């Protein structure tokens, strides 16, 4: 009887699964080495360029799936992520400068100005004219009317100068002492480049060649009733003129139309203002009845016009202490601003559409 032959057994689950798993792991490791988001050192951190590269690759794959060609340059999202990463790196390493007043250009350009541009471009839709009257370098004193309950006009003027001036100069505002007494607000104002409205600080800024802005009406302009809109209040004793004369800096009149309508002030509750330590307590159509919604400014259409500069180089050093000269220049600046306001208002059809 022939011996039975042994059957050849073919294993169904041999080492093939192990080899395929090894191949997949090797492929993952190879792709990880090529991908910019994975680092050789697990303990290290990704750079801004690596993060932007990952976002750019995602955009390219997304656009290839949708059938659209991707741009060669980085997307807005990639730029934003890279900018945020660079901002954090700069703040952590301390590679930024702050001047003697506390002005921090890095945080101003990265945070404050972008936030203010939302109001400037989309809410108030500010038009700017006469920017050529501001010097390209050196000191100048910008003198503007003041209104609107809250000082949005100063902040919008700051954006107007920075974004429309050919050299993107910074405008340093002289603000009331109350601003710097408020928690957080005072520190933010210092970082944005502003300081107290006193003759000493004005002279120091001008002596350093800075573009400086002053609002001589002060709280009298901010807190006036809506029925008195665009009627300039008294300009004080002319301290700003003395500072300009000492520094021999030109005085640039600035007229702002639109700020009067953002919070139409119908009444001033003086008792509440006294109890709260405020210069006025406004009552508007929406505040305080509408609560927090009453703090939202109305979207009036703005126009900021910088007038022709008034030169001060022809005056000698004693002119800054001459009350007749300071009064004459103060009156000239006030009349120029008032006349320009009337001209701008005559050409405006509607407070919300210009």
Automatic annotation (TrEMBL):
The keyword Transferase applies. Residues 140-259 form the Phospholipid/glycerol acyltransferase domain. Pfam families: Acyltransferase. GO terms for cellular component: membrane. InterPro entries: P_lipid/glycerol_AcTrfase_prd, Plipid/glycerol_acylTrfase. Residues 1-47 are annotated as: Disordered. GO terms for molecular function: acyltransferase activity. This is Acyltransferase family protein. It comes from Mycolicibacterium septicum DSM 44393.
């Amino acid at each position: 009887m022939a011996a039975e032959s042994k059957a050849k057994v073919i294993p169904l689950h041999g080492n093939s699964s192990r080899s395929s798993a090894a191949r997949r792991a090797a492929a993952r490791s190879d792709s990880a080495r090529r991908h910019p988001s994975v680092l050789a050192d697990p303990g290290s951190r990704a750079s801004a360029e690596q993060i932007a590269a990952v976002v750019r690759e995602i955009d390219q794959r997304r656009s290839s799936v949708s059938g659209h060609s991707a741009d060669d340059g980085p997307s807005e999202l990639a730029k934003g992520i890279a900018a945020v990463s660079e901002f954090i790196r700069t703040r952590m390493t301390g590679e930024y400068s702050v001047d003697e007043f506390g002005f921090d250009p890095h945080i101003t350009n990265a945070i404050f100005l972008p936030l203010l541009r939302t109001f400037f471009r989309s809410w108030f839709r500010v038009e700017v004219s006469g920017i050529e009257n501001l010097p390209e370098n050196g000191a100048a004193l910008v003198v503007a009317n003041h209104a609107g309950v809250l000082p949005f006009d100063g902040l919008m003027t700051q954006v107007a100068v920075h974004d429309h001036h050919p050299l993107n100069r910074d405008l340093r505002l002289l603000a009331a002492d109350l601003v710097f007494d408020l928690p957080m607000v005072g520190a933010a104002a210092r970082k944005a480049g502003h300081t107290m409205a006193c003759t000493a600080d004005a002279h120091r800024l001008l002596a350093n060649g800075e573009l400086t802005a002053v609002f001589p009406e002060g709280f009298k302009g901010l807190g006036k009733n809506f029925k008195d809109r665009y009627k300039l209040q008294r300009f004080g004793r002319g301290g700003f003129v003395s500072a300009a004369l000492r520094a021999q800096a030109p005085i640039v009149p600035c007229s702002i139309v639109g700020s009067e309508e953002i919070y139409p002030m119908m009444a001033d509750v003086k008792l509440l203002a006294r109890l709260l330590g405020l210069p006025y307590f406004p009552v508007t159509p929406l505040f305080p009845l509408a609560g927090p919604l009453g703090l939202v400014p109305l979207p009036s259409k703005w126009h900021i016009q910088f007038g022709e500069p008034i030169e001060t180089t022809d005056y000698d050093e004693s002119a800054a202490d001459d009350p007749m000269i300071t009064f004459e220049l103060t009156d000239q600046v006030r009349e120029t601003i008032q006349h320009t306001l009337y001209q701008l208002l005559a050409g405006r059809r509607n407070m919300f559409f210009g």
